[in-house]
Give the backbone structure.
Amino acid sequence: SLDTGPDVEAAYAGRINLRVSVPTGDVALTIMKLTLQENNKIRCKVQIPKDTSGKGYASTTLVVLVAPSPPVCRIVGTTEYFENINMTCASEEGSPAPTYKWQSYTVNNVPRPNPLKATDVNGLLSLYNISIDTSGFFVCTSQNKIRSATCNVTLAVMPPSMKLGSVGAALIAAAVIGLILAAIGIYCCCCRKRKEQSEEYTMG
């Protein structure tokens, strides 16, 4: 009703302005302080008593433009020879939704193609059977029609590390071998002393 004003939800209180011109039949809706929640379809519906002909409504899509927030880059997996790893890149905000692209650089900061068999899909870069040649810098660009933002990670591929269990087993084995050798040495020394004592007794 024009007398009481439009019905407005609490979330839009103070942010909605509706201007109605009865002579021209125009209605203007103004939304202030836009947020991402307004990314939606908006429908205008007209109700005229006893008028059932024609289309009673029209709709449009409101797109709120927001630049991508600085993305976050992460390495997921073990960065050792012959392993498979993933690199992730994501912006928390951005409208329209950002697109992502990874660029690889050598350890000397020279651009290079992504490794063979690598896949780069929606911010997820998958690397397979990595080696020392895979080491370098990886830069992810998050971009939409407003602007772009980047993040980067450093990948250092290392030889396979010794497992903790293997190290413990090796130490125990070394200790056992050491004790056996020590026991043999003590036994030989004792036998030699007994032999020398027996020979001295015989000569006496």
In short: Residues 10-62 form one domain. The first helix runs from residue 164 to 203. The two ends are 135 Å apart (CA to CA).
